[in-house]
Amino acid sequence: MGVTAVRGVVSELVGVLEKESELVKELVEILQQDQKRIIKQDIVGLEDSNRCKEGRMLRLQALEESRLGLTERLGKGLGLASDEMRVSTICPLLGPEARDLEQAAEKLRALVGTLNELVAVGRGFLEQSILGIRGLLCLIQSLRTPEPQTYDANGRFEQPSEPEAVAVRREV
Questions:
Q1: Alpha carbons 81 and 130: distance in angstroms, whole number
Q2: How far apart are CA 172 and CA 164, in angstroms?
Q3: pLDDT, tens digit, for every residue of 58-99?
Q4: What stretches of 83-98 show up as alpha helix (H) in DSSP?
Q5: Tens digit of each residue's pLDDT (9 = 90 or more) over 113-128
Q6: What is the pLDDT of residues 5-37, one digit of tens each?
Q7: Are 20 and 64 in contact (CB under 8 A)?
Q8: CA distances from 30 to 3, 22, 115, 131, 150 (A)
Q9: Structural contact between residues 46 and 37, judged by C-beta atoms closer than 8 angstroms
Q10: Residues 147-167: tens digit of each pLDDT
C-alpha cells in the first residue's frame, strides 16, 4: 500500500472514529437525561429515549463494522498479523501521520469510558428500584392475615391445596 493510499485510509478511519465519538456522546447525553426521567418516573420519556438509543446503536454498529474494515485494510497494508490489527498497534507504525488517528481514538475511548460509567449508575438505579419493590411486596405479604393451618397425620403442617387470593380493600 502506497503512502497516498495509507493517508486516504487513515483519513477515512479518523472520520469514522469521529462519527462514532459523536454518537457515543449523544448516547451519554441521553443516559444523563434518563437518570432524571427515572427519578421523575417519566415512563413515556423513557420509552422515547429507548427508541432514540436503539437508532443510535444501529448506526454505531454500522460505523463499528466500517472501522473494523478500515483497520483491517490498513493493517494488511502495513504487514500486520490479523490479531494485531488495532488502532493502538497501527499508530506507532504510521509515524507523524498517526497524530489525528491517535487523538480520535483517545477521544472515543474516553467517551466510551463515560458511557460505561453511566450504564453502571443506571444499573444501580434499577437495582435500588427492584429492592424497593421487593421490600414493599414483603411488607404487603406480612400484613396479610395468616392462612389457617392444619396438621396432617404425621404432625406436619398441611399445605393449602390452592393459594388464597389477595384482596385489596379500599376504605373511604
A1: 47
A2: 25
A3: 999 999 999 999 999 988 888 888 888 888 888 888 888 789
A4: 87-94
A5: 999 999 898 888 888 8
A6: 888 888 999 999 999 999 999 999 999 998 888
A7: yes
A8: 41, 12, 10, 25, 56
A9: yes
A10: 666 777 787 777 766 655 555
Res 47: pLDDT: 93
Instruction: For the chain, give every domain's residue range.
Output: 3-143
**What DSSP assignment string belongs to 40-77?**
HT-HHHHHHHHHHHHHHHHHHHHHHHHHHHHHHHHHHH
- Please name which of 23, 18, 14 lies closest in space to residue 70, comparing C-alpha atoms: 14
Q: How many helices (H) and strands (E) does the chain have?
A: 4, 0
b/e 135-145 (16+ beta carbons within 10 angstroms → b): eeeeeeeeeee
Give Cβ neighbours of residue 131 (< 8 Å, ≥ 6 apart). none
> What is the C-alpha separation between 56 and 23, in angstroms, rounded?
6
